[in-house]
Specification:
The protein has 38 helices and 28 strands. By secondary structure, it is an alpha/beta fold. A 6-stranded parallel β-sheet has the order 18-15-19-20-22-21, sandwiched between helices. Strands 9-10-11-13-12 form a 5-stranded parallel β-sheet, sandwiched between helices. A 5-stranded mixed β-sheet has the order 24-26-25-27-28. The protein starts with a strand and ends in a 13-residue tail after the last helix. The structure holds thiamine diphosphate and magnesium ion.
Length: about 1000
């Protein structure tokens, strides 16, 4: 059968140009193979063939303009399967069980029910007998038919109640008791005696390490109280749950709470992974071999995996990590091995917007590979987290509301008999009503205080504990310190499917520290324990050290053949190895062949485009390279259309773990919104923090998943570094490899959007991150050379750097790459053009981004109208030039007797005359950075001040970076340098109507 391939619906565009023809007559093509690439003034998109077959005729060529319905090619022997059916096919495949359930419920609840007026819940039990019957019925169902039947019935009853208009009590929270009832707790198979000893040694060594460091200098700091509260939470995980990476398994990923780092070192010491010498070098890292204060992969690249200490970043990065793991599995790049992501965070830390900001995404994406453990020691740095409330209940409400499986671990086993004996419900009532401030005070003030303040409120409760001593009461433990309760919760979390789990554990800050810091407001910063405190701590945990050893703050490590060390090592062996440990088995990605970038090296002639479009075309080309294509991870926070990337939607699909349950409104269109389980694009919605977390997950996949990925996160540059700067810093720490693209960059280039949108400083922020390599290219060939090198350096040569490249939305034509420019493009500057022999005076004119074009235009005017010659330098990276300048200067200062080395800037400028005039679309400090590295007079111009909306022309005039200002200021600078009389400048100011009275833009 013969078929015509025509241009499908391409949205609002008409008469768009064909820029590539990707097939020729005689080619055998498959359905969805691209035929041509179309380019409008905003975006480029490939047109796929709706059929497979052999191309018998081509009706178009490069440069032709086509619209919807234009004939592109003819096919012979084509199969009749048409493109639009693919959606229907998908739809039947990806069934939606949820919809079916909802439908059943809906029809069932349509039964007629007698409507009654809504009434608030009655406070008093007017018929206790009836209440008892209901409860007994429920218990009978639980016993006879199991909890799932009981839940079903309750849900049914609740639905009926809603239909009847009843106001039901708030169900976001459950009573202030453990979620898992004692009878349902799965018992730990471990040897509790040995585990207790191991935990005691770890506690001791962690505290000793901090105290020792502070003996050297109190400048060093450190924390004891955080780990003291969390030791059991970590130990149970280490002994029983967390599986390490090895040749057979990808490994669970554990995000440790930053301030609990001492505990991880202390365990690694017992495991024989860290030496005593290393412990003694806690927080002393300047000479190699020290231990970093907190988890920092940059400083301990074989140990730490995740930088977590800037609070809030760990939780959200971990959520997107769990999501990215599913993405890799759903895209067929990774095996599903049931790996889990565990995240530890403090209760105070949950106040960070980032901590809870993405919990609804975790539930929506059904991330049952994710387990949060919130260590609720009820305190933060200054005092209680919720003195007047209950952080555990508040968190339960938030997580349950978001759709998480919530496991509260509030009370330890010593409370079990009391709860059982409490027939009146008063104990639970009391537990519910006491606020955290009181709970904290109770742990600080001892058993008698608890008897009076907690149990003393009701005679029945006082009676309940009448046979207990104050010491017994004091021993009533919190769930987070009870290994049995913690084990049961972790076990349940591991089994849970369909949603993420949060274990909310109640603990005591500074547990075991006694007067020196148990449950007191100053616990967090306690880092010095005196002799008495140390002796108390030793006794509290039965650490077998003599008084003398305690006074010397010795570490305790039993012999290698002791039962404790053998047990500890055996447990880790069973779980596949040690944790944390950082490694990479990823294989590099072969850099794409040159021809993928070749078309960008040529002039675009009259054709105008933006560097954003050039980049998007580059990515489209890269999707044709078999090595690179599957590894590309385009990440966009709801701006694909802004950047002309909507063509990616259909071409590679948007990742959606449930596929697409609806027919998209634009399904007929070429760029239709296609969501699919194997989708490649991460369309994040409006969350820069989320998108950045996705980028970090992908950019560190080489170590966390042993697969090299190439994330390209494209964002509004204004909403980049300044919005998520701390994540970018963490990315540097984590040794991320990938591209950050600051699109719509430049204070005057974004024009209409105004003050909050126009970026004139992101490069300064990027320059602060040591392993971030940044560029502000002007022309498409610069972008191509930079991007190609980024792929080579990061993903083929595995350098631990990441790229920040700005891309603009201004359309202009692009010249051909000057011969031999590659090296300079990458180093940061190259000679773009020279005006010679016109005049005697010369300037060194530098520019970057779109403002380089103003400089080029100014050079022409200066040459033609004022007889001033210029060397025009395209400065692709002031940041890279500065790095080179600093390093060379340092070397020269260190070696005053040696021959002076020249920085790259000096080499470029040494044989060239005249002052430097530097102009960019960024604040002056961007170009000022290279001032120290040339002895030429230096004048910089930039866009200091708040942006505002107007046309590009007006904005450039306002910020004084248009060609007219460049000309006038250059002439004035030449006058100042006494290379020219001042009349020329005066003339130019007049000619261009430059208002000398206008205030400096930072003041406007
Ligand atoms: C973003 C950020 N802000 C502030 C700090 C300083 N800081 C370190 S720990 C801490 C208190 C932590 O309290 P919590 O989260 O409850 O942890 P805990 O030590 O009680 O387990 C603060 C304010 C930080 N590390 N990161
Ligand atoms: Mg806390």
């Amino acid at each position: 059968m013969n078929q015509n391939i025509i241009v499908p619906d391409i949205g609002d565009f008409d008469s768009v140009e064909i820029i590539e023809v990707l097939v020729k007559v005689g080619d055998q093509i498959n359905k969805d193979d691209p035929i041509v690439t179309l380019e409008s003034d905003k975006s480029s998109v490939e047109v796929p063939s709706p059929f497979s077959g052999k191309i018998s005729e081509l009706r178009i060529k490069i440069g032709d303009k086509v619209s919807k319905g234009s004939l592109l090619a003819k096919l012979e022997n084509s199969s009749s399967e048409i493109r639009d059916r693919s959606f229907q096919k998908n739809q039947t495949k990806e069934k939606n069980p949820q919809t079916e359930v909802n439908l059943t419920i809906a029809t069932e609840t349509k039964k007629s029910v007698k409507k009654i007026f809504a009434q608030p819940t009655s406070k008093d039990d007017i018929d206790p007998l009836e209440t008892k019957e209901w409860i007994e019925s429920l218990n009978a169902v639980i016993e006879n038919d199991g909890p799932s039947r009981a839940s079903y019935l309750l849900n049914k009853v609740v639905s009926e109640a809603y239909t009847a208009g009843l106001v039901l009590p708030d169900t976001r929270t459950t009573p202030y008791i453990n979620t898992i009832p004692t009878e349902l707790e799965v018992k730990s198979p471990g040897d509790q005696n040995i585990e207790k000893k191991i935990r005691a040694y770890i506690r001791w060594n962690a505290a000793a390490m901090v105290v020792r460091a502070n003996k050297i200098s109190s400048e060093l700091g450190g924390h004891i109280g955080t780990f003291a509260s969390a030791a059991t939470l970590y130990d149970v995980g280490m002994n029983h749950f967390w599986r390490a990476k090895n040749k057979d398994f990808g490994g669970d990923l554990i995000y440790f709470q930053g301030h609990s780092a001492p505990g991880m070192y202390a365990r690694a010491f017992l495991e024989g992974r860290l030496s005593e010498k290393q412990l003694n070098r806690f927080r002393q890292e300047v000479d190699l071999g020290g231990l970093s204060s907190y988890p920092h992969p940059w400083l301990m690249p074989k140990f730490w995996q995740f930088p977590t200490v800037s609070m809030g970043l760990g939780p959200i990065m971990a959520i997107y990590q769990a999501r990215f793991l599913k993405y890799l599995i759903n895209r067929g790049l990774l095996k599903d091995e049931g790996r889990k992501i565990w995240v530890f965070l403090g209760d105070g830390e949950t106040d960070e917007p980032e901590s809870l900001g993405a919990i609804s995404l975790a539930a929506r994406e059904k991330l049952d590979n994710l387990i949060f453990v919130v260590n609720c020691n009820l305190q933060r740095l200054d005092g209680p987290v919720r003195g007047n409330g209950k952080i555990i209940q508040e968190l339960e409400g938030s997580f349950r509301g978001a759709g998480w499986n919530v496991l509260k671990v509030i009370w330890g086993s010593y409370w079990d008999p009391l709860l059982k004996a409490d027939k009146t419900g008063l104990l639970m009532k009391r537990m519910n009503e006491v606020v955290d401030g009181e709970y904290q005070a109770m742990k600080a003030k001892g058993g008698a205080y608890v008897r009076e303040k907690f149990f003393g409120k009701h005679p029945e409760l006082k009676e309940l504990v009448s046979s207990m001593t104050d010491n017994d009461i004091w021993k009533l433990n919190r769930g987070g310190h009870d290994p049995h309760k913690v084990y049961a919760a972790y076990h349940a979390a591991m089994q849970h499917q369909g949603s993420p789990t949060v274990v909310i554990a109640k603990t005591v800050k500074g547990y075991g520290m006694g007067k020196s810091g148990e449950s007191i407001n100053t616990t967090h910063q306690q880092k010095k324990l005196d002799e008495q405190d140390l002796l108390y701590y030793r006794d509290r945990f039965n650490v077998p050290l003599t008084d003398e050893q305690v006074k010397n703050i010795e570490y305790y490590k039993p012999a290698e053949d002791s039962e404790e060390i053998k047990y500890l090592k055996e447990r880790r062996k069973q779980l596949g190895g040690f944790i944390p440990e950082r490694s990479s088995l990823a294989t590099p990605i072969k850099a794409p062949p040159k021809d993928i970038f070749e078309s960008f090296m040529k002039s675009t002639g009259d054709k105008e485009m933006s560097t954003t479009m050039a980049l998007v075309r580059m990515l489209t080309n890269l999707l044709r390279d078999k090595n690179v294509a599957p590894r590309l991870v385009p990440i966009i926070p709801d701006e694909a259309r802004t950047f002309g990337m909507e063509g990616f939607f259909r071409k590679i699909g948007i990742y959606a773990h449930e596929g697409q349950k609806y027919e998209p409104e634009d399904s007929e269109q070429l760029s239709s919104y296609k969501e699919t389980k194997s989708g490649q694009v991460l369309e994040e919605g409006i969350t820069e923090a989320g998108a950045m977390s996705s980028w970090i997950a992908a950019a560190t996949a080489y170590t966390n998943h042993d697969i090299e990925m190439i994330p390209v996160y494209i964002f509004y540059s204004m909403f980049g570094f300044q919005r998520v700067g701390d994540f970018a810093w963490a990315a540097g720490d984590a040794q991320a490899r990938g591209f950050l693209i600051g699109a719509t960059a430049g204070r005057t280039t974004l024009a209409g959007e105004g003050l909050q949108h126009q970026d004139g400083h992101s490069h300064i922020l990027a320059s602060m991150i040591p392993n971030c390599v940044s560029y502000d290219p002007t022309f498409s060939y610069e972008m191509a050379v930079i991007f190609r090198e980024g792929l080579r350096r990061m993903h083929e040569k595995n350098e631990n750097i990441f790229y920040y490249i700005t891309a603009m939305n201004e359309n202009y034509s692009h010249p051909e790459k000057p011969e031999g420019a590659d090296e300079g493009i990458l180093k940061g500057m190259y000679l773009f053009k020279e005006y010679k022999n016109k005049g005697k005076i010369k300037i060194q004119l530098m520019g970057s981004g779109t403002i380089l074009r103003e400089a080029i235009a100014a050079a022409k005017i200066l040459s033609e109208e004022y007889g001033v010659d210029s060397d025009i330098w395209s400065v692709t990276s002031f940041n890279e030039l500065r790095k080179d300048g600093m390093e060379v200067e340092r070397k020269n200062l260190l070696n005053p007797n040696e021959k002076k080395e020249k920085s790259y800037i000096e080499k470029c400028l040494e044989k060239r005359d005249g002052p430097v005039i530097a102009v960019t679309d960024y604040v002056r400090s961007f170009s000022d950075q290279i001032r120290p590295y040339t002895d030429k007079p230096f004048y910089s111009f930039g866009t200091d001040g708040f942006g505002r909306s107007d046309t590009r022309k007006n904005l450039r005039k306002f910020f004084e970076v248009d060609k007219e200002h460049i000309v006038a200021y250059t002439l004035s600078a030449l006058a100042k340098e006494q290379l020219l009389g001042s009349e020329s400048a005066q003339k130019a100011f007049k000619k261009y109507n430059i208002d000398k009275e206008k205030p400096f833009p930072t003041k406007l």
